[in-house]
Amino acid sequence: MKQFMKGMKRHLLSGVSYMIPAVTVGGICIAFALATADAREEGMIITNELWQNINIIGEAAMSFMVPLLAGYIAYSIAGRPGLLPGLTAGYLANNPLGTAEIKTGFLGGMILGIVAGYLAKWVKEWKVPKVIKPIMSILIIPLVTTLLVGLAYIYILAYPLGGAVSSMESMLSNLTSGSTVILAIAVGCMIAFDMGGPVNKVAFGTASALIASGNMSVMGMAGVAICIPPIGMGLSSILLKNRFSCEEQEAGKAAIVMGSIGITEGAIPFAASDPLRVIPSIMIGSSVGAIIAGLGGATDAAPHGGLIVLPVVGNAPIYILAVIIGSLTVVLLMYFLKKDLTKHKPNE
């Protein structure tokens, strides 16, 4: 089991290393474009044509994030035959499917990449006639693996998940009439859990819908929670350098910029490389920030998060304080939970 876990960490880090450029390049392009935008009730509006095009380029780069993660996890496990199945599985995870338009995001992509890799590795071991061997790696293995993983995802995970999403939407709507603290914890945890996945979208969608009815406090909580994971992890990579790789430290600088503009996905490289420590930490940090925003009466009139929406934020000092305390909470948790890399040999 110990050897398996070491191998799994190596595969995850391989996927993350190929994913980081898509996150940083795409995220920075989007961040710079949004920095020119106007914060309005309908969202962030980019009016300049050049920056609109730069935003399109950034979104295109970001769209490769999950496919690259899944593809190169599978490649690390099974070699070249695993690459296409992993890329395809990552694409499926990152795009809406079914009537409920379910998108499982990076967590779905990471799981599918692992499944695709081990499935491709298993198919490679099949005993086949000599006449078929030349086309195994270029046709049979990718075809069989892609179909099995894709169909399993669509029928076993994506469609049933639609019902779960509907249940979460109802649960969160019911909480809006109850305790502010419980609502803030729910919003913070859901926003940070999958950083753009279905759980995140339920919280964000609910908060955005409530703006139209005059309730902007939930969006205030969500706006704070959205930027804490990337800012918190970015600060951690700078302040706790001995706990992060050089690649993660570079990604951390971009993550701070992305977080300030309200792009939660900036934290995904950190979560993908160490999910068991990072995901609970950013959920706690986002919850702390959301609680402060909720109790302090911070509001957000735009369906977006981060510091870029400050022109339409009510009680901005509390909003900023919530972001700072939530981000520092993440740094503190990383200090206690993340291992010091300098104290561990590379082969450990």
TrEMBL record:
Compartments in which it is found: Cell inner membrane
One Pfam family recorded for the sequence: PTS_EIIC
Recorded superkingdom: Bacteria
Regions that span the bilayer: 12-35, 56-78, 105-123, 135-158, 178-197, 209-231, 278-298, 318-337
NCBIfam families: PTS_IIC_fructo
Gene source species: Breznakia pachnodae
Taxonomy of the source species: Bacteria, Bacillati, Bacillota, Erysipelotrichia, Erysipelotrichales
Name used for this protein in its record: PTS system fructose-specific IIC component/fructose-specific PTS system IIC-like component
Topology relative to the membrane: Multi-pass membrane protein
